[in-house]
Backbone:
């Protein structure tokens, strides 16, 4: 709506079309009109040049990044020192190896910097931060000039109409918008923390797998060496006719099968190492010496940790995925509030000054949007549904974690029972069988070659079973830790206090 002003006995100025600003009118001489036009043009150009930013293209250079990525291979001692520097204050000195080899905990610190997914997540957070820091700004004012030519043949054949318009928010919409964008930034930071937590455990699982494969390869190589030493005796016995060729042929067959299994394990070992490189953000050709460590490091940590006493009630406060869900729900709440505020109109003011028919006039235009037909109903309905979706997702995430916790404890119990059987029953029997064979050989008795081959096979199987049960226990322990452990702080601490509801 517009408020017309009267000038003495003159007729009131007619308002423009709905919600547009009233233009001020003036009738000037041609010379003055030209000066004013030039002043407006030059002033507007100078103001835009000062207040507006300039654009500069920055092409994507993947070839340069490829060179940087491949050059990320550094000296092992420097890499180890870099990792310890990154993790200072986060882990104790006991987590680091004394030499230049990279431990699992040092690898985690390196992954926090170079992992590609984490770098992308932090870049997304930087976008959210830029949005939050520039949110809630007023709309730029606008300036307009209309030129009108009178066709009645009078001296003042031209009239100039100008206005400046400004939108004034009245209902706190900009404050809510600032809070909404700040919550979006906080939610992305929570996602970064959750991604870091996920990458840590992916790296721990990959490191445990690699450590287990290192032991498997060593055991298989030792088995082949022992088998080849026995084959020398078997070949001599076959030459003397003390062993049939059918029986003697079993040994080279077993060696061929052992070499085939060794080749598969070496390939798996190499793939596990490449997975570690990828999680650490290093190129496949990166050369550094790594310390495999014990497979059951995390199982021992869990057994002696206070986290083993935690239950599902702590998940609501500590788990990173629920921190993200909580932040998303707060964001949905604030988004709904913003959409509701948007249905209330802002005030549009358009003051002007000029002359008409030789008389100077001041004009003030006021305008508001009447929320009758649209009233932002679609956005509000979507925001209500989005809030309900955020609530259901949070509840589903909690239920999933509780299920995962039960599964993880079941896996851990099964893995510990399996390892106990191998350690307390299988290995003692195999060792007793091997001791009997050695004692028989030392006493000069006849040792059956096939029985000796079977004993070697049982020894290897027992060792591999122990490695596998230890690996399963480590994976189960990591699963439990991933669910009940916490990287930092409770949920509410992720959201800045000034924007919490």
Residues:
């Amino acid at each position: 709506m517009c408020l017309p002003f009267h000038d003495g006995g003159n007729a009131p100025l007619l308002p423009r079309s709905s919600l547009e600003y009233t233009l001020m009118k003036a009738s000037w001489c041609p010379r003055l009109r030209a000066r004013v036009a030039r002043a407006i043009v030059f002033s507007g150009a100078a103001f835009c040049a000062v207040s507006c930013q300039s654009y500069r293209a920055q092409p994507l250079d993947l070839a340069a990044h490829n060179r940087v990525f491949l050059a990320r291979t550094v000296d092992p001692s420097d890499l180890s020192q870099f990792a310890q520097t990154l993790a200072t204050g986060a882990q104790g000195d006991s987590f680091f190896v004394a030499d230049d080899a990279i431990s699992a905990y040092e690898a985690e610190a390196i992954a926090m910097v170079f992992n590609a997914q984490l770098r992308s997540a932090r870049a997304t957070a930087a976008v959210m931060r830029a949005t939050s820091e520039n949110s809630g700004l007023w709309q730029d004012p606008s300036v307009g000039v209309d030129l009108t030519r009178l066709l009645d043949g009078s001296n003042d054949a031209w009239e100039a109409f100008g206005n400046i318009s400004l939108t004034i928010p009245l209902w706190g919409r900009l404050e809510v918008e600032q809070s909404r964008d700040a919550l979006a930034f906080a939610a992305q930071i929570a996602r970064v923390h959750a991604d870091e937590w996920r990458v840590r455990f992916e790296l721990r699982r990959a490191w445990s797998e690699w450590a287990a494969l290192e032991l498997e390869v060593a055991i298989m190589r030792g088995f082949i060496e022992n088998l080849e030493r026995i084959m020398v005796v078997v070949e001599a016995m076959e030459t003397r006719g003390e062993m049939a060729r059918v029986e003697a042929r079993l040994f080279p067959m077993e060696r061929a099968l052992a070499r085939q299994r060794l080749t598969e394990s070496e390939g798996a070992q190499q793939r596990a190492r490449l997975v570690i490189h990828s999680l650490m953000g290093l190129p496949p050709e990166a050369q550094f010496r790594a310390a495999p460590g014990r497979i059951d490091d995390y199982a021992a940590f869990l057994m002696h940790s206070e986290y083993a006493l935690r239950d599902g009630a702590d998940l609501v406060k500590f788990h990173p995925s629920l921190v993200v869900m909580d932040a998303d729900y707060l964001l949905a709440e604030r988004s709904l509030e913003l959409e509701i505020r948007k249905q209330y109109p802002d005030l549009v003011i358009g003051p002007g000054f000029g002359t008409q028919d030789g008389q100077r006039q001041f004009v003030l235009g006021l305008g508001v949007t009447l929320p009758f037909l649209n009233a932002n109903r679609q956005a509000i309905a979507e925001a209500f549904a989005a809030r309900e979706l955020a609530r259901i997702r949070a509840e589903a995430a909690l239920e999933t974690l509780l299920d995962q916790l039960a599964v993880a404890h079941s896996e851990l119990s099964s893995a510990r029972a399996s390892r106990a059987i191998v350690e307390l029953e299988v290995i003692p029997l195999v060792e007793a069988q091997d001791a009997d064979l050695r004692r028989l050989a030392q006493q000069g008795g006849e040792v059956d070659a096939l029985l000796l081959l079977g004993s070697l096979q049982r020894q290897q199987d027992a060792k591999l079973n122990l490695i596998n049960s230890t690996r399963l226990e480590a994976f189960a322990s990591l699963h439990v830790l991933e669910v009940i452990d916490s990287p930092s702080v409770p949920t509410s601490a992720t959201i800045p206090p000034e924007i919490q509801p």
